[in-house]
TrEMBL record:
Name this polypeptide is given: 3-methyladenine DNA glycosylase
Domain of life: Bacteria
InterPro entries per record: Adenine_glyco (IPR005019), DNA-3mA_glycosylase (IPR052891), DNA_glycosylase (IPR011257)
Originating organism: Microbacterium nanhaiense
Length: 203
């Protein structure tokens, strides 16, 4: 049985470690929180995958996306931008009939378009990971309670605008802040969590 600290939102798990309540909802979420969330992702494919999945998550729970991630990876060719950029109408219809993923045509089309925009960045002498990491802030939040965690920032607004300028879709400021949290640009682990400060990006 877990003990909770409602004033902060931290929960002490059966292993004695403190996590936010959302990370104690299932073994899947706990493993994701403990091993992935907030750790640096600096390769193009990794950032493209997470940008894509954050877009699919919009309006839904992250647990839903995480459960479907293996199917997403299979359906979207391992999120290889070159492969996804080549998807046409046949692939769109295949994806729309794939019950293993979230079948949202607008998000599917955005993912394909974002793969093409990712390739266009290469032609300009940069890549998606380099562009995104260029918006790392000078400091990170240090939330002591769930209510202290922002949902957007000046940097996520600026990143959203830059990606949209370059042809990306479904990259609003809130979605981009979630991406920044997920790949380590900011550390929004609650102060007191066993994961706070473990990314190596922030002290």
């Amino acid at each position: 049985m877990s003990d909770s600290t409602p004033t902060t939102g931290l929960v002490i798990g059966p292993d004695g470690l403190a996590r936010p309540a959302w990370a104690e909802q299932s073994e899947l979420l706990r493993a994701y929180y403990d091993t992935e969330w907030g750790m640096p992702v600096t390769d193009e494919r990794g950032v493209f995958e997470r940008l894509s999945l954050e877009a699919f998550q919009s309006g839904l729970s992250w647990a839903t996306v995480l459960r479907k991630r293996p199917a997403f990876r299979e359906a979207f060719a391992g999120f290889d931008p070159e492969a996804v950029a080549g998807f046409g109408e046949l692939e769109v219809e295949r994806l729309m009939s794939d019950a293993g993923i979230i079948r949202n045509r607008a998000k599917i089309l955005a993912t394909i378009g974002n793969a093409r925009a990712t390739l266009a960045l290469r032609e300009e002498g940069t890549d998606l990971a380099e562009l995104v990491w260029g918006f790392r802030p000078a400091q990170t939040p240090a939330p002591r309670a769930i209510a202290d965690i922002p949902t957007a920032s000046a940097e996520s607004v600026a990143l959203s605008k830059e990606l949209k300028r370059r042809g990306f879709r479904w990259v609003g400021p809130t979605t981009m802040f979630a991406l920044m949290e997920a790949i380590g640009l900011v550390d929004t682990h609650l102060v007191g969590s066993h994961r706070r400060g473990t990314s190596g990006v922030w002290g």
